[in-house]
């Protein structure tokens, strides 16, 4: 089921920290990055959807995921572009495009223009910024 993010989620940083735990808080709220090849969703190959770990907004479908060999889960595109916000990121002496959840303004990762297919984009996303929800089994 596709849906647009409508209601923004706003919480105090203390509430986010208590809810997310230290590792997720560092990535989602402080724009941190997990170590490459360490994320639990890097090898996830099941059918389903990837949601924001902070607010639950639907972000990526499993059919957009591909193995980019970069060390983080990679996607060709978000399920709905309006569910993410893209921002210029000039940190660490580089120019990149940061990807944030539009609903709660949490940091997800970065997008690059070296992906496969007609879009040519690679959304390089931290596993800790996502929750994977498997598709219901057709036999259940």
Overall description:
It contains one helix and nine strands. The chain has 140 residues and is of the alpha+beta class. The chain has a domain at 48-140: Peptide methionine sulfoxide reductase (Metal Binding Protein, Guanine Nucleotide Exchange Factor, Chain A), CATH 2.170.150. A six-stranded antiparallel beta sheet has the order 3-4-8-7-6-5. A three-stranded antiparallel beta sheet has the order 2-1-9, with no helix packed on it. The chain is globular and about 40 Å long.
Radius of gyration: 15 Å
Query: Beta-strand percentage?
Result: 25-35%
The CATH topology of the domain at 48-140 comes to Metal Binding Protein, Guanine Nucleotide Exchange Factor, Chain A
Parts with pLDDT < 50 across at least 5 consecutive residues: none
Q: Provide the helix percentage.
A: 10-25%
The beta-strand count equals 9
How does the overall form come out from the CA principal axes?
globular
Instruction: Give the name of the CATH superfamily of the domain at 48-140.
Output: Peptide methionine sulfoxide reductase
Q: Please work out how many helical segments DSSP would assign.
A: 1
Structural class: alpha+beta
First and last CA, distance: 17 Å
Going across the major beta sheet, what is the strand order? 3-4-8-7-6-5
CATH class of the domain at 48-140: Mainly Beta
Q: Taking all residues together, what is the mean pLDDT?
A: 91
Largest sheet: 6 strands, antiparallel
Assigned CATH architecture of the domain at 48-140: Beta Complex
N-to-C SSE series?
Answer: HEEEEEEEEE
């Amino acid at each position: 089921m596709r849906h647009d993010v409508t209601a923004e989620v706003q919480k105090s940083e203390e509430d986010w920290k208590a809810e997310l735990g230290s590792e997720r808080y560092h990535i989602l709220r402080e724009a941190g990055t997990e170590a490459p090849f360490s994320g639990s969703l890097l090898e996830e190959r099941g059918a389903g959807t990837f949601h924001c770990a902070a607010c639950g907004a639907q972000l990526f479908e499993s059919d957009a995921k591909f193995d980019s060999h970069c060390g983080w889960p990679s996607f060709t595109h978000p399920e709905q572009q309006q569910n993410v916000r893209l921002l210029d990121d000039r940190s660490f002496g580089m120019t990149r495009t940061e990807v944030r959840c539009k609903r709660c303004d949490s940091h997800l990762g970065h997008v690059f223009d070296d992906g496969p297919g007609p879009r040519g984009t690679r959304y390089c996303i931290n596993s800790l910024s996502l929750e994977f929800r498997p598709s219901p089994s057709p036999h259940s």
